[in-house]
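ok trying this again, last paste got cut off
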Amino acid sequence: MRIVSLLLCLGLMLPAATGGARSPRKPMRLCAEILSYTLEQPSGEEFVATLEKKIREYGIGEVMIHGFTPEQWVTNSEFPKVKRVVDAERVAKYRRQLQRFKRLGVKVTLSGPGPNPPQGFFEAYPEARRIASGEFQRYLRSTTAELFRQLPEADAFEIYLWETPFLNDVDFFSGMYWEKTNLDAFASITPHYGRADFLTETLTAYARGAVDAQRQFVFLTFSHVPWQEKLIIEALRQMDGDVPMLLDHKVQPGDWTPQRPANNVMLNVTDREAILLYDGTGEYWGQSLMPYCYPEEIQQRLQHALRNNRSIDTLGMRVHWVNGTTVFGNYNEVNFFALSRLARDPETPIERIWSEWAEGRFGAAAAPKVISALQRTNEIANRFYYLDGIWVQNHSALSDLPYLESHFVQFARSMLLWNPGDFRTAARVREVTENPREYTVERVKAERVEALRLNQLSLDDVETVRGSLNKAEYEKLTGQLRLQRRFIEVAIPHMEAFLRYRIQKQRANAENLHRFEAALAELEAQAVAVEQEYGERVSILKASMIRTYIKQIRAAFPRS
């Protein structure tokens, strides 16, 4: 009896010694994010029908419709000087699509960029330029409420910033001010204001409009660069606690970049109900035309998020992209499958998730080798879609020179600012952007050669279980991995030519010019190979893209 008592005491003491027992939490809601245009195009019907099946299969509780354009659906009825006509038939068709989801019992959230006042709005209502007048806020509030009247099937409306002509990386509430003069500001009861106050007022207006319609307002805490993220944190922290609003956090700051740390808004604003959002399709990692499977990182980011923000109660994932590809039926479905299992229990062993998914799709005999092949794919893609964490391709497609040059320094700088303590990455980023040399070229090429080696190991894994796979599955697996291989083979001279271009601008020399021409010759050979293998069928890798890049960089290359 004394032994039993001692064991009980030890059992009670153990949680305190190890930081506390893990308290069970209720399952999190599962959200699938799709693109709005799909609901309006006949070509999207197949995907919508598939999604209906997947809602039942996975127990999806919410459909978030991204890329929705709110201003196209409202008449601005309370602002007659900018009143517009809305296509009633278009509204009716869109509502019928939303009703398909509502019949399945899911929450429907419309997600779009804002604010985006109509052309001529400030000329018609000049007082709206003055924030203290409240007219701008009234416009946002009234149109939000009207949106729900037009589309009553919607349960929530989400806004993300920085992607409208009115509010982007260059224009910040252009032409707006708080009071007419400094004297007015000091004489009134209006408190001191800063840039974040414009965001606070905007988000509050949207939230009040949703309340008027007895619906929810959601804010996607997205930003392109760190200064925007800091403004968002400040704006959210100073909001009145009685303003109802849900937060939607991408797992990392900025757009989908695996090398970045956790979303800082998620870590710093933890007092509001929140969604944690992933990309499963691979907008920047192959768009599901080639695999990018990362259940391990999905779990790691989730566990870290939950330890730092207990308000997260929904897990979301983007499940399709603009070329019509989707996780469903492709190998990236393992990402959504993993999220669905982790929503029930974030501590589920990841190897169990892999096995359950792979055995169900490929059979027990083939599953171990297919898992081995697919587990490498995120490391492979990270080695050729990024350069030391810098995003170097155009939404998965081979980038041309203007895109690459305009984004290269911008994303390099954001990498440094979002990873201030990572001195190793900082040193490499500064090397490639500020002081590229022969060593840099060889290092970058070696990264991509290693991606080729890993890709071959994955192809070999699939080949060993060819007899256990049905023909269609074998051909799809090898086809996607071979496309990945071809892209890497193109990416090697693509990046070499770019780095030699940058070297030449700083230190022009004949040897660098000679090697630059050799890289372009290899690119042309790759263009021929791509043309023969794929024609122009693959949206992210076309011979025409390669040849456009060759022409651009040859014309821009310094000769002396």
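PB: full thing came through this time. The longest helix spans residues 471-506.
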